[in-house]
Amino acid sequence: MALWQLQKTRKRVKKSGIIYFAVNPRIPDMVKIGMTIESAESRLKTANRKHEFMCGRWAITQKVKTNDVKRTEDLSHKIFADFHDKESVSTEMFFIPKDMTVKQMADDVREKDQVMREQREKQNKAMEAVDKAKEALEKLKQETHELITLKPTIEEQEDK
Fold it and tell me: How would you write the chain as a 3-class SS string?
């Protein structure tokens, strides 16, 4: 099997999806911030399955579309790290900050995710510039070495 055929058979991992903000009326002042590459409705169906330890029903009130769910979920958890419910067995449960709504939390994630994408683009461009500068420096070192190194004459080479 040719290399291109092997590469074609590999399954591409889907990275785009949504970050959802789910609330449960039985758990006031809390929000579940999670991710899914499926639809919000299918994620909600899973969350609302009958479970003896979970009261109430979840509702997704805000969604943030993203091209990289893991990056954006990590970012959202970092943004609200001070509000994480440390007693929860879930890493996705957060207290809603007193001066914010769930919509404002989602808007904050949207804005900061855009900043992250822009910063990553600038970092990539800077890394490309560094790589080009390293190549130029290596070429300059080689050129300098060739310019200062004394070359033996043809007769000196034949004597060896």
Answer: CCHHHHHHHCCCCCCCEEEEEEECCCCCCEEEEEEECCCHHHHHHHHCCCCCCCCCCCEEEEEEEECCHHHHHHHHHHHCHHHECCCCCCCCEEECCCCCCHHHHHHHHHHHHHHHHHHHHHHHHHHHHHHHHHHHHHHHHHHHHHHHCCCCCHHHHHHC
CB 145 within 8 A of CB 136: no
pLDDT tens-digit series, residues 21-74: 999 999 999 999 999 998 888 888 888 776 656 778 889 999 999 999 999 999
Regarding pTM above 0.85, the answer is no
What letter represents residue 81's amino acid?
A: A
